[in-house]
Amino acid sequence: MTEVATRTIEVGGEPGYAVHVGPGALERLGEHARPGRRVLVVAQPGRDALVTATVTVLADAGAVPVVAEVPDAEAAKTAQVLVSLWARLGQEGFTRDDLVVGVGGGAVTDLAGFAAATWLRGVDSVLLPTSLLGVVDAAVGGKTGINTAEGKNLVGAFHPPRAVLCDPAWLAGMPRADYVSGLAEVLKAGFIADPVILDLVEADPVAAADPTADPALAVELVTRAVRVKADVVAADLREASLREILNYGHTFAHAVELVEDYRWRHGDAVAVGMVYVAELAHRAGLLDAALLGRHRTVLAAVGLPTAYPGPDRWHRLRAAMARDKKSRGSTLRLVVLEGLARPTRLVAPDESLLRAAYDAVR
Ligand SMILES: NC(=O)c1ccc[n+]([C@@H]2O[C@H](COP(=O)([O-])OP(=O)(O)OC[C@H]3O[C@@H](n4cnc5c(N)ncnc54)[C@H](O)[C@@H]3O)[C@@H](O)[C@H]2O)c1
Ligand SMILES: O=C(O)C(=O)C[C@@H](O)[C@H](O)[C@H](O)COP(=O)(O)O
Ligand SMILES: [Zn+2]
């Protein structure tokens, strides 16, 4: 990826922090590495060059880094892996002065953030997202956690990082399917809050799906999506209400991920989840046919799935949807659109509508 100017997006809160996206972002890690500070670098497999560079920046600043490589993707987000990190933190004598750094995609930043949230009831974290989805969504906003056998992210904590650092060069080497998966969360930000994102992607979906094709476009999409997330989480960190809009498409998406035993990429599931909930909102009389169609068109244009075909899995999906964190008691609550960038909630929709929307995405 050719060099583009660094963008810094401030995330408000107590304390606030910055998301730095640009060449040389890693050097800023030195600001968090005082002499003698222990640092646990939680690393995704395959990120070896970046992990080595991370250790060098920390050590050059006098800190004492140790590396814990964890399994790839969702296999990292388990209680067993978390326990192994707690063991390491204990064995290395980590105190409240010390630091956890996450290097990898959203799975690792969720895990590393939760290890930081729980160790000694909370130590600092700095997140270095290496995936598109990680930088636009997972590393920003302080949601940390792991999965359980019953569902996605069912155990976690709100624990904002001290900084999020991403060099776009890290994203350039991503497998195409993983990069495209991240575009689902970018497009989500477009649907719920910033339609310019949709316009930019629709104008050149081929370039949008390739971080090396138009680096300026890639950074513009990242910056816009991060701004949407930053504004929302600054106003409602703990998801009392507004933050729920970031969960657009996720009620169905998380159910698909569970039923598929996490073989589906999160972003792919979110893409189908947005089509599902758009179908639902259309049937509930909230969303017009044109905006429903726009979901399918723009998602498909970048290569994201818009259907979840196969045998009838409705009963398992519906049971998983009941455990969605937006549910209250037995009442299902879904984020829906009643227009472009006009999110609202659909509460306890008729079961026949829920099923009909499923049939529409099969
Ligand atoms: N905390 C939040 O607010 C939040 C928001 C969105 C998603 N998430 C979570 O994030 C996870 C999804 O994140 P993801 O899409 O990054 O998945 P991931 O972390 O599983 O990474 C996907 C794949 O990309 C690979 N990869 C990552 N960076 C790479 C690079 N630079 N080069 C080559 N390969 C690379 C990984 O090794 C992995 O195989 C899910 O667990 C989801 O629940 C959390
Ligand atoms: O930050 C949020 O809030 C989100 O909902 C962002 C989602 O993209 C992300 O997948 C999040 O992890 C889902 O949270 P959950 O509370 O439904 O597990
Ligand atoms: Zn998500």
Automatic annotation (TrEMBL):
<protein>
    <recommendedName>
        <fullName>3-dehydroquinate synthase</fullName>
        <ecNumber>4.2.3.4</ecNumber>
    </recommendedName>
</protein>
<feature type="binding site">
    <location>
        <begin position="72"/>
        <end position="77"/>
    </location>
    <ligand>
        <name>NAD(+)</name>
    </ligand>
</feature>
<feature type="binding site">
    <location>
        <position position="250"/>
    </location>
    <ligand>
        <name>Zn(2+)</name>
    </ligand>
</feature>
<dbReference type="Pfam" id="PF01761">
    <property type="entry name" value="DHQ_synthase"/>
</dbReference>
<keyword id="KW-0963">Cytoplasm</keyword>
<dbReference type="InterPro" id="IPR016037">
    <property type="entry name" value="DHQ_synth_AroB"/>
</dbReference>
<keyword id="KW-0862">Zinc</keyword>
<keyword id="KW-0547">Nucleotide-binding</keyword>
<feature type="binding site">
    <location>
        <begin position="130"/>
        <end position="131"/>
    </location>
    <ligand>
        <name>NAD(+)</name>
    </ligand>
</feature>
<keyword id="KW-0520">NAD</keyword>
<feature type="binding site">
    <location>
        <begin position="106"/>
        <end position="110"/>
    </location>
    <ligand>
        <name>NAD(+)</name>
    </ligand>
</feature>
<feature type="domain" description="3-dehydroquinate synthase N-terminal">
    <location>
        <begin position="69"/>
        <end position="178"/>
    </location>
</feature>
<keyword id="KW-0456">Lyase</keyword>
<comment type="function">
    <text>Catalyzes the conversion of 3-deoxy-D-arabino-heptulosonate 7-phosphate (DAHP) to dehydroquinate (DHQ).</text>
</comment>
<feature type="binding site">
    <location>
        <position position="143"/>
    </location>
    <ligand>
        <name>NAD(+)</name>
    </ligand>
</feature>
<dbReference type="InterPro" id="IPR030963">
    <property type="entry name" value="DHQ_synth_fam"/>
</dbReference>
<feature type="binding site">
    <location>
        <position position="266"/>
    </location>
    <ligand>
        <name>Zn(2+)</name>
    </ligand>
</feature>
<keyword id="KW-0057">Aromatic amino acid biosynthesis</keyword>
<feature type="binding site">
    <location>
        <position position="185"/>
    </location>
    <ligand>
        <name>Zn(2+)</name>
    </ligand>
</feature>
<comment type="pathway">
    <text>Metabolic intermediate biosynthesis; chorismate biosynthesis; chorismate from D-erythrose 4-phosphate and phosphoenolpyruvate: step 2/7.</text>
</comment>
<dbReference type="InterPro" id="IPR056179">
    <property type="entry name" value="DHQS_C"/>
</dbReference>
<keyword id="KW-0028">Amino-acid biosynthesis</keyword>
<feature type="domain" description="3-dehydroquinate synthase C-terminal">
    <location>
        <begin position="182"/>
        <end position="327"/>
    </location>
</feature>
<feature type="binding site">
    <location>
        <position position="152"/>
    </location>
    <ligand>
        <name>NAD(+)</name>
    </ligand>
</feature>
<comment type="similarity">
    <text>Belongs to the sugar phosphate cyclases superfamily. Dehydroquinate synthase family.</text>
</comment>
<dbReference type="InterPro" id="IPR050071">
    <property type="entry name" value="Dehydroquinate_synthase"/>
</dbReference>
<dbReference type="InterPro" id="IPR030960">
    <property type="entry name" value="DHQS/DOIS_N"/>
</dbReference>
<keyword id="KW-0479">Metal-binding</keyword>
<dbReference type="Pfam" id="PF24621">
    <property type="entry name" value="DHQS_C"/>
</dbReference>
<keyword id="KW-0170">Cobalt</keyword>
